[in-house]
Amino acid sequence: MAQTQPHKPAPSAKTASTAASKNKSQAAEPRRATHGTFIWNELMTHDAEKAKAFYKQTLGWHYESMPMADGTTYWIVKMGDTPAGGIFPMIGPQFEKLPEQWVSYICVDDVDARVKLAVNAGAHVMREPFDIPKVGRIAYLTQPGGAKIFWMTPSP
User: Which of 15, 27, 29, 32 lies at 20 to 30 Å from 144 by C-alpha?
Assistant: First the structure.
């Protein structure tokens, strides 16, 4: 025999509005980075403008520019006010033979120490740890199976 659930009254308009405001403000806050979790996705592309146009047309993304130290522009992808990822323009001879690709970043507590552990476990370092001011310390790895993964210790 099925049990009936007690009837709960519908929330008042004020209660529903307060809950919606709370949920909206929580969604706009960046997720706290914790060790071992994915924290960022980035498109590495040879043609940032073409990629931006594609995703704007198909997903409704818009972009915020962020100047990089080398004079190029990194693009923060946004849905509304919420960051959804990034677009990295692969400009320069060091990127000529690299394919366009999406890459994921995993938060680690100490990128230098974790890279040493990764190498001991069979990973290959594609780029030694380096700093990006106000962002964090990053390393590019290839796991033993060959997949690329970026690890980052975010700036405080």
Answer: 32
Residues 122, 148 within the same domain = yes
**Do 154 and 115 share a structural domain?**
yes
Query: What string of H, E and C letters represents the secondary structure of the chain?
Result: CCCCCCCCCCCCHHHHHHHHHHHHHHHHCCCCCCCCCEEEEEEEECCHHHHHHHHHHHHCCEEEEEECCCCCEEEEEEECCEEEEEEEECCCHHHCCCCCEEEEEEECCCHHHHHHHHHHCCCEEEEEEEEECCCEEEEEEECCCCCEEEEEEECC
Q: Where in the sequence is the domain holding 117, given as residue range(s)? A: 108-156
Asked if residue 115 and residue 87 are part of one domain, the reply reads no
The answer to whether residue 15 sits within a structural domain is no
Residues 127 and 151 in one domain: yes
Whether pLDDT at 13 is above 50 = no
Q: What Å distances lie between residue 20 and 15, 31, 35, 80, CA to CA?
A: 9, 18, 30, 16
